[in-house]
Design a protein that fits this description.
Glycerol uptake facilitator protein; transport; 229 residues; cell membrane; MIP; Aquaporin Z 2; Aquaporin_transptr
Length: 229
């Protein structure tokens, strides 16, 4: 239960920092500031709860970890459920806070939900969204698996992972708003509804596929250090 609670709290932090920065401060800090906020949320959670649960905060990460042989299927399911709960609570907190402004409406301002096509940032199409989310998640989970393997310097893992997520956002916010995390997408979409829910499958399927491939490649030893070297 302690691990599950840590994943709820950590994913709450991710959504509250990242999506909260977009909703509450987006007009002031822009894409660069939002990218940094998402990266800092990972750093905060990694060093705050990483020793308890590993601070996955993301079903795609947990799937990659499972396929790399580091956790069981049962643990993966429990982590994924906890992450979705945390993301939903994070989106709810943002919604309640943002509603304190007379100028805020979910329809006009959103909750940092992911999306593509007309009306979404660069208006990229479906294939661009799928490809970006798949590649970005593969890279993200590969970095996580590499940074947390036994031979890696443990003290630097949280920083490396956070900076990677920042970089991913700097590349892709204009494409999809950046998911690389089904839980992060589910939370806001549940409150926004409409197109956010209609497009949600993209931000579940593509990240899970990218995370799965990263786990399989790591298990095959292609991205894992030779511990006997």
């Amino acid at each position: 239960m302690k691990k599950n609670f840590a994943e709820v709290l950590g994913t709450f932090i991710l959504v509250f920092f990242g999506c909260g920065s977009a909703v509450l401060m987006g007009d002031f800090i822009g894409f660069h500031g939002i990218a940094v906020a998402f990266g800092l949320s990972i750093v905060a959670a990694a060093y705050g709860i990483g020793a308890i649960s590993g601070a996955h905060l993301n079903p795609a990460v947990s799937l990659g970890v499972m396929l790399a042989g580091r956790m069981s299927a049962g643990e993966f399911i429990a982590y994924a459920v906890s992450q979705i709960i945390g993301a939903t609570l994070g989106a709810l907190a943002i919604y309640v806070i943002a509603s304190g402004s007379d100028d805020f409406t979910v329809a006009a301002n959103g909750l940092g939900q992911n999306g593509f096509g007309p009306g979404n940032n660069g208006e990229y199409g479906l294939m661009a969204a799928l490809l970006f989310e798949f590649i970005a998640t593969f890279v993200f989970v590969t970095v996580i698996l590499g940074a947390t393997q036994a031979s890696a310097p443990a003290a630097m893992a949280g920083l490396a992972i956070g900076l990677t997520l920042t970089g991913i956002h700097l590349v892709g916010i204009n494409v999809t708003g950046v998911s690389v995390n089904p839980a992060r997408s589910i939370g806001p979409a549940l409150f926004v509804g409409g197109a956010a829910l209609g497009q949600l499958w993209v931000f579940i399927v593509a990240p899970l596929a990218g995370g799965a491939l990263a786990g399989i490649v790591h298990a095959a030893g292609l991205t894992a250090a030779d511990e006997n070297a």
